[in-house]
Amino acid sequence: MNIPLIKEIMTLSPEGQTVIIRGWVRTKRELKHLVFIEVNDGSCFKNIQCTFDLSQFTDQSISEQLAEVSTGVSVEISGKLVPSPAAGQPVEVTASSISVIGKATAENYPLQKKRHSLEFLREIGHLRARTNTFGAVARVRSRLAFAIHEFFQHRGFQYVHTPIITASDCEGAGAMFQVTTLDLEALAKSGKAVDYSKDFFGKRSYLTVSGQLEAETYATALSRVYTFGPTFRAENSNTTRHLAEFWMVEPEVAFAHLEDNMELAEAFLKHLFNVALTDCREDLEFFNERIQQGIIETLDSVVNSKFTHMTYTDAVKELEKNAGAFEFKPYWGCDLQSEHEKYLTEKVAGGPVIVTDYPKEIKAFYMKLNEDGKTVRAMDVLVPRLGEIIGGSEREERLEVLENRIKELGMNPEDYWWYLDLRRFGTVPHAGFGLGFERLILYVTGMTNIRDVIPYPRAVGQADF
Amino acid sequence: MNIPLIKEIMTLSPEGQTVIIRGWVRTKRELKHLVFIEVNDGSCFKNIQCTFDLSQFTDQSISEQLAEVSTGVSVEISGKLVPSPAAGQPVEVTASSISVIGKATAENYPLQKKRHSLEFLREIGHLRARTNTFGAVARVRSRLAFAIHEFFQHRGFQYVHTPIITASDCEGAGAMFQVTTLDLEALAKSGKAVDYSKDFFGKRSYLTVSGQLEAETYATALSRVYTFGPTFRAENSNTTRHLAEFWMVEPEVAFAHLEDNMELAEAFLKHLFNVALTDCREDLEFFNERIQQGIIETLDSVVNSKFTHMTYTDAVKELEKNAGAFEFKPYWGCDLQSEHEKYLTEKVAGGPVIVTDYPKEIKAFYMKLNEDGKTVRAMDVLVPRLGEIIGGSEREERLEVLENRIKELGMNPEDYWWYLDLRRFGTVPHAGFGLGFERLILYVTGMTNIRDVIPYPRAVGQADF
């Protein structure tokens, strides 16, 4: 623990001081009496080069040690830190000793020094963080998760752990996973009805699809709160954009209106992109070069833009002007498609757009009804290249209006007794939004398959490791 | 959003400037022509007092507004910030206007100005964060969650989201919840065997009991990682110390031995307690006064102590000297009971103790075997008043030894193919530990029922909200 990470060693001034390098070998090259070993410990993108000048060693055992070195081997190397003559690396190590800690024989180790397909790497999820791409994804993910906490904590928000297991499907946001301790084998053979009184929670229970409703109970006590936790959808869609298990961030703010919500969302995204651009620069440069050109430019432009505000009604008018260009013809009342969202950001606004005041029919029951009786104070934040990255709204805080809306949708107000209580007792205007964390990581890294931006993706037929 | 929180207003220098207060009324008192309203917005423990001098108002509507004010009502008050003559509050507001935003009629609102039992408050989990106790718990919880991230991020650790749904019960740590999309009603009536090929993941799947094994896969790529997420136990134990759903923190460090692990755990706890003592002072003073005397002193003493190190064998010797005092007679090979752990911290060491090198029979399969062949490099961190707060170990990094241990326990090495791969390819010594977040919060707040330190507790028969 007292031995610095390679990331730290990289920033030292090279004055011939002794350093110890611990990590995994990425490459070994030999050139006459020189052996070059590049070591990575995952703390940063770059490897540190360790050079062995065999003409300087009197002990022959060094050759035996070096013979065991191949890609994936774990080593401890000591030597002197010196300036590097090579481009792109500030320092290197003139090595004086090496211990091979754990071998990785070239015949068996799946990660050899060549380019592997992302599909292949998905099959070895337990090893893929050892590659350039997945190491970089992991670092960006970690840094941005922390940036989310920093953003909210520094603004007086309290982090709330909303429940994962829930007995209510309040949001009705889609298919849910059931959680049970019933013995399914015995149940199947029983031929009888299910007796939920025997189940762990005494009733049907599920994995949460959103922490929002519970977050609202805390926002109406602590004023500003946020959640950041796993959510689940049992949707049978095998795409590059859906996961059965994903992490969501959901701030909720009391005494806030839609305008405050828009301001918060804009500041939030700019903060995250700024952190990525600043603190994950090396990793982003790799993504920009090898995964998707232009991502740094896009992030830079979002950070420096002023988000355009546009009502849904105005957005549809813009789209209708160009209706011929779309596969799905836009009309008032339609859900905006990806192609529409891209058009709004890339062609109409030339930057991020917040679309507000959607028809109530295409949005959730808890969104505040406008005076026109037709639209709700919803907002979707759209960014160039991706489309929707954030969805949110001001909430309906008027008891009667909310109850009517629940009934209108054929739901039972009694199921929402506690949610309605927030409107019965000291109700306040409030607003919030949701950000899918993996969508954010896709956007920042330029990766295209959502299964590649979470350590162990869960999807139809996939729960390995 | 641009209106400061009460926490921020409390720190302003009172110079008669205009301020706007938004929050929920805790109390209203009347004294001749003066009306005192205490408002809380959950941003801090303290209420801010707003004084209405009715002799100064010409508009009679003020009385109508004030008549609607009762406990739980949401209000917006504006006035001038002035020094407070009252003890314990630096500032107060000489109010010039008030709007009642949301009412809370005294007949219906469950949270009146009196002391409510914790049992009663558990039934209104959606409102209990509006009380002194649960507001304070929520703030401490939020601050310490952030402190966990700060501690690890500043030390070069990467945050890893290990999976929640898993198809393997690798750790064998206890009863698991099954996750399914099978139609249980149809299944029950079928009278046939369960066909898991029809289930969402194509096989039996569960909620995770620990992210450790997956964290190890990332530690052996990124060197230093930690998890912080929900974990689950379907144990049918209805106690004040168990939850079915709880949050765990699990750091894992490559190239670390047991000694490094002990050092890390000690620094970690001291950091967390320091943050609580410094940043949650007001809340802790409340707990110290009203919930459990002496908690501040205990935390202070832990922060200033040097943790005692003791092998399990030595610990048992100490306990045997005093065997008569225990309900469970201590002997070499026994699991340490709560009473033993308390004795070690309070009587033997007079402070925190890290007990190491437990018999392999009472510890998990992945812990590194000592040369004696009988004990493993496990460690439990014990603190006064609570007992075990952290459990961890150096991991078995030798492929053959680990395989033998798995077989010895009647488990199947093939189920652990990916975990064993970490030992096949570039294995390194590594170590880590787990901290139950709710146990930490219990310790810091002095609360005694674990259901009171998580927003929505899940336990046998309990999945409300």
> What proportion of the residues of chain A is helical, as a percent range?
25-40%
How many strand units of chain A? 16
CATH class of the largest domain in chain A: Alpha Beta
- Strand proportion of chain A: 15-25%
- Unreliable spans of chain A are none
**Radius of gyration of chain A from the CA trace?**
27 Å
What fold name stands as the CATH topology of the largest domain in chain A? BirA Bifunctional Protein, domain 2
User: For the record, what is the CATH homologous superfamily label of the largest domain in chain A?
Assistant: Bira Bifunctional Protein, Domain 2
Distance between the termini of chain A: 28 Å
Secondary-structure class of chain A: alpha+beta
In short:
Chain A contains 14 helices and 16 strands. Chain A has helices at 6-9, 61-67, 118-123, 132-153, 184-190, 212-222, 258-279, 281-291, 295-303, 312-321, 338-349, 399-408, 417-424, 437-445, and strands at 18-31, 34-40, 48-53, 74-83, 91-102, 158-159, 165-166, 178-180, 205-207, 224-232, 245-254, 308-311, 353-359, 375-383, 387-394, 430-436.
Protein architecture, described:
- Chains A, B: Its EC number is 6.1.1.22.
- Chains A, B: GO terms for molecular function: asparagine-tRNA ligase activity; ATP binding; nucleic acid binding.
- Chains A, B: Belongs to the class-II aminoacyl-tRNA synthetase family.
- Chains A, B: It is found in: Cytoplasm.
- Two copies of one chain form a homodimer.
- Chain A has 465 residues and is of the alpha+beta class.
- Chain A has 14 helices and 16 strands.
- Chain A has two domains: 6-102, Beta Barrel (OB fold (Dihydrolipoamide Acetyltransferase, E2P)), CATH 2.40.50; 128-452, Bira Bifunctional Protein, Domain 2 (BirA Bifunctional Protein, domain 2), CATH 3.30.930.10.
- Chain A has helices at residues 6-9, 61-67, 118-123, 132-153, 184-190, 212-222, 258-279, 281-291, 295-303, 312-321, 338-349, 399-408, 417-424, 437-445, and strands at residues 18-31, 34-40, 48-53, 74-83, 91-102, 158-159, 165-166, 178-180, 205-207, 224-232, 245-254, 308-311, 353-359, 375-383, 387-394, 430-436.
- In chain A, a hairpin with a 7-residue loop joins β4 (74-83) and β5 (91-102).
- In chain A, α4 (132-153) crosses α14 (437-445).
- Chain A is globular and about 90 Å long.
- The two termini of chain A are 28 Å apart.
- The model of chain A has no long low-confidence stretch (mean pLDDT 95).
- Chains A and B meet through β1, α4, β6, β7 and β8 of A and β1, α4, β6, β7 and β8 of B.
